[in-house]
């Protein structure tokens, strides 16, 4: 979706739009650390996030990769910066075609800074000379597909600021404004400003833009002060005016990083309050890849609450333009949403309203991608799961500890710790794991809970949500047979079971689709975002069984043969079982395990 449309929709509803900017880190660990922080920040539902292109185009490939992951794996509307520096038109086309193919619809068009070692920007042969050229090129080549944002400079572009005074001349400032108007007239739809610390300067810039006929939204760029040296370096590079009172406040505390950060949060909060009171309903936070200050500012403003992170669906829908109507998914990948997205990237249509109506015919094959993990996550898994295993009971204990919250990671989950709803049934889960039913996915029954419930709610306020109790686990064939026999006394239970080699045991038809979660909302049709179906379960089982080896056994050193052999034995002999209690009002899914 175009960011301009999201901002306008928020304005019509009287809501404030906020967004975050990130830059590509230099190391692989830095990239994974960025995504860890981004995941926490995206949970607060920013209107969009953007990723910079890098000085001189040096991070082009990395920026494209990060933008793709942001849009499709982080599920946040993403705007990618694109510059003219060291970029022949062929490279610009490659970048635009890549993000379009990845479902990204938003670009911030910039001239870019001079390459390292050069004082001034020089147009390369076969390239473009300025942001205006880039805006015109994007519009001529791609029509209205992209939402194009451009940069605005409340104090004028650094190139026209005089070194003697630190200010632009009136003629230089006016020329910069007129150039901004040309960028908008050429197809720019949104202005994001350079950082500033004098709010009155921003207000003057707003008035001046309106005076010359610029009517599009102008988003103020807010950069929290996180440390003194970084602040001086950034304001020096951008030639940003530092008000005398700001310098006076920072000078006594400049060597105390905690005090500087606390002051930076206070200052940015007060700036934002003044901006919002002026009638501006958008804020763009330059995070410098740090989350705490940006989150603290938004909390101070009352725009977010840690305890009220809302979900439009039980899972985060990718912001990819091709998946905007997707609202149904199989439950099996509930804890591995990135894997699900990667295995459905090739679909032409995504389920909307009913799973069976528009299901794509095939999932993507398993690849190394499904088993890649950030290094930090691998270390946590290593510490919690690469323990000596002498018996099946040791394996059962790992699963039980996970369900009781004593472990924070699982080879079968991309998510951190237990989900809030799991804590409703954590003791029952812990007990059945010790009996040899090794659970990897579950949800409690819910009968008409308010949709803004912090544990099971989704879809926003004003509705009611429902769900059937669900369990997914591994167990021996002997335990499965006992479960099947006992299920005859539980007519509301349906099950599907399969082992690694494909032996199938079930009491549902091969084309049956069971709605597990649904919601009722004012002036809407019933939404049913989570289902269980045999075709998807058979695809998922290959991934689920493969995790025994590629997700768990690989954590052990080569010499730890006995633990690996035990995991391989389980992988080769156990069944994967999906169990649903269709009586979400009076059912007792755990009752069937009491005498097993």
List the helices and strands and how they pair.
Elements: H1 3-12, E1 17-22, H2 28-42, E2 48-51, H3 60-72, E3 78-82, H4 89-101, E4 106-109, H5 131-142, E5 147-152, H6 170-185, E6 190-193, H7 199-211, E7 218-219, E8 221-222, H8 228-238, H9 244-250, H10 257-277, E9 282-286, H11 292-300, E10 329-330, H12 337-343, H13 375-385, H14 392-403, H15 426-434, E11 438-443, E12 446-450, E13 464-467, E14 469-475, H16 477-487, E15 493-499, E16 504-506, E17 514-520, E18 527-532, H17 534-552, H18 561-573, E19 575-581
Parallel strand pairs: 1-2, 1-9, 2-3, 3-4, 4-5, 5-6, 6-7, 8-9, 10-18
Antiparallel strand pairs: 11-14, 12-13, 13-17, 14-19, 15-16, 15-19, 17-18
Helix pairs in contact: 10-11, 14-15, 17-18
- Rg is 27 Å
CATH topological fold name of the largest domain:
TIM Barrel
Mean pLDDT: 93
CATH structural architecture of the largest domain: Alpha-Beta Barrel
- The largest sheet has its strands arranged as 7-6-5-4-3-2-1-9-8
Spatial gap, N to C terminus: 51 Å
Residue share in helix:
25-40%
- Assign the CATH class of the largest domain: Alpha Beta
Number of domains: 2
Number of helices: 18
SS-based class: alpha/beta
The number of strands is 19
Question: How would you summarize what this structure contains?
Answer:
This protein is an alpha/beta fold and 596 residues long. The protein contains 18 helices and 19 strands. The strands form three sheets. The chain has a nine-stranded parallel sheet. A five-stranded mixed sheet has the order 10-18-17-13-12.
């Amino acid at each position: 979706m175009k960011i301009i449309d999201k901002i306008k929709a928020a304005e019509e509803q009287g809501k404030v739009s906020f967004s975050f900017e990130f830059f590509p880190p230099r190391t692989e660990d830095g990239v994974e650390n960025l995504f860890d922080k981004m995941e926490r920040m995206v949970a607060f539902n920013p209107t969009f996030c953007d990723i910079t292109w890098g000085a001189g185009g040096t991070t082009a490939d990395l920026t494209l990769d990060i933008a793709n992951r942001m849009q499709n794996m982080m599920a946040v509307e993403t705007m990618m910066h694109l510059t003219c520096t060291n970029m022949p038109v062929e490279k610009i086309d490659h970048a635009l075609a890549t993000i379009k193919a990845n479902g990204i619809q938003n670009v911030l068009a910039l001239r870019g800074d001079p390459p390292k070692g050069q004082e001034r920007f020089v147009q390369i042969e076969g390239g473009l000379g300025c942001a205006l050229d880039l805006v015109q090129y994007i519009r001529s080549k791609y029509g209205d597909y992209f939402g194009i944002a451009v940069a605005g400079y409340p104090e004028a572009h650094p190139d026209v600021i005089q070194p003697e005074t630190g200010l632009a001349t009136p003629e230089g400032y006016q020329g910069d404004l007129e150039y901004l108007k040309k960028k908008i007239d050429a197809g720019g739809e949104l202005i994001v400003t350079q950082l500033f610390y004098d709010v009155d300067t921003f207000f003057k810039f707003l008035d001046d833009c309106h005076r010359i006929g610029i009517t599009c939204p102008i988003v103020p760029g807010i950069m929290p002060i996180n440390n003194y040296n970084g602040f001086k370096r950034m304001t020096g590079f951008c030639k940003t005016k530092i008000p005398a009172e700001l310098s006076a406040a920072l000078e006594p505390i400049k060597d105390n990083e905690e005090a500087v950060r606390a002051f930076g949060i206070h200052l940015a909060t007060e700036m934002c309050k003044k901006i919002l009171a002026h009638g501006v309903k958008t804020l763009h936070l330059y995070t410098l890849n740090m989350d705490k200050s940006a989150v603290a500012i938004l909390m101070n403003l009352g725009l977010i609450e840690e305890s009220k992170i809302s979900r439009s669906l039980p899972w985060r829908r990718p912001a990819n333009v091709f998946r905007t109507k997707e609202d149904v998914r199989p439950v099996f990948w509930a804890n591995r949403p990135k894997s699900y997205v990667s295995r459905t990237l090739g679909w032409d249509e995504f389920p909307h309203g009913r799973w069976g109506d528009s299901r794509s015919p095939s999932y993507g094959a398993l690849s190394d991608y499904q088993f890649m993990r950030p290094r930090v996550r691998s270390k946590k898994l290593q510490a919690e799961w690469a323990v000596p295993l002498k018996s099946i009971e040791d394996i059962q204990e790992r699963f039980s500890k996970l369900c009781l919250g004593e472990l924070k990671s699982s080879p079968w989950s991309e998510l951190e710790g237990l989900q809030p709803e799991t804590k409703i049934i954590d003791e029952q889960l812990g007990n059945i794991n010790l009996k040899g039913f090794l659970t990897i996915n579950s949800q409690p029954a819910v009968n008409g809970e308010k949709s803004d419930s912090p544990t099971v709610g989704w879809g926003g306020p004003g509705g009611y949500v429902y769900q059937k109790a669900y369990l997914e686990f591994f167990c021996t064939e002997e335990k499965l047979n006992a479960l099947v026999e006992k299920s005859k006394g539980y007519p509301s239970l349906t099950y599907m079971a399969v082992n690694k080699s494909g032996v199938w045991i079930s009491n549902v038809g091969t084309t049956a689709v069971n709605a597990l979660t649904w919601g009722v909302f004012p002036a809407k049709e019933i939404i049913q975002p989570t289902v269980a179906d045999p075709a998807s379960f058979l695809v998922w089982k290959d991934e689920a069984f493969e995790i025994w080896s590629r997700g768990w056994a690989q954590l052990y050193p080569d010499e730890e043969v006995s633990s690996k052999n035990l995991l391989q034995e389980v992988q080769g002999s156990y069944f994967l079982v999906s169990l649903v209690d269709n009586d979400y009002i009076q059912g007792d899914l755990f009752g069937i395990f009491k005498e097993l």
